[in-house]
Amino acid sequence: MLRTFFKYKRRLLGQLCQAAVQALIGYFQALTGTELIPGVVAVIQTFGQKINFHPHAHLLVTEGGEDRDGHFHHIPAFSDGLLAQMFAREVFSLLLREELISQALVEKIMGWHHSGFSVHSKVKVSTKEEAERVGKYMIRPVLSLERLSFDKPQGQVSYQYGKEAEDLERMDYQEFIARVTSHIPDKGQVMVRYFGLYANAHRGKMHKREQGQHKLLIIEEEGEKIPQRGWAELIRKVYETDPLICPKCQGQMRIIAFITDYPVVDRILNHLKLTFVADKPPPPRIAFQELLMAAEANKEYFS
User: Fold this and answer.
1) What is the pLDDT of residues 14-42, one digit of tens each?
2) 160: buried, middle or exposed (CB in 10 Å: 19+, 13-18, 0-12)?
3) pTM for the predicted model, two decimal places
4) Which ranges of 98-141 would DSSP assign to H, the alpha helix?
């Protein structure tokens, strides 16, 4: 539902990168209690595996950031789920400022079991060669000519987007041209961006610091500080509510154990005769006709 805005308002792609960086900065601040400046190389990609329009960003990020005193706080692990929630809120704030969506639509999407936002931070690099390999992946082209074939009599293009035989997309040649040309950047549009420690201004400051022979102090943020500011602290930062406050007596709750086995959870709830009814039921899947009505109402953005 939201990709169309980035397709027809291409300047929003740059702000999509900034939203990802702001989510990362907010995550670091919630985790450590300190405003940190990470180093980020951000690449905007508009295509998916099937050459479809799928705007997203790839970020090469430092494991932590630098505080105002010039100390680098090392954060070795990231919570993808919480980062995805913070990223979603940054994107929603962007589209609300642009008056492209309403608050009601935001609440509807946030109520879905899968909002469509995701973060994957499991790829790590430790050498220059590994960083270069990730960088090449980030700036890879839209398609591979080796996976492309053309049936001239039928006027159909086939694209092998995966390794399996069934991972084959067939389309009319005009559809293929439309898909490829939709990924051409606007004139002067920057697709690779540098933020924080990797920005030119900060690199200039670092160069002066090295000339002054001031060593960078690295602070490891993997001791007792992270558990104290764990998931509950991050939820407080994101949702502005304390999940460890009892809704009945307003007392501080203590975590005894985590149960993730769904059948066990169901048996406990049934034994205690507990039922939970959401204030707002999850919205049904939006019908195609409703999407057409939304597009018609916002057609001035798509012209």
Assistant:
1) 999 999 999 999 999 988 888 999 999 99
2) middle
3) 0.67
4) 103-110, 128-138
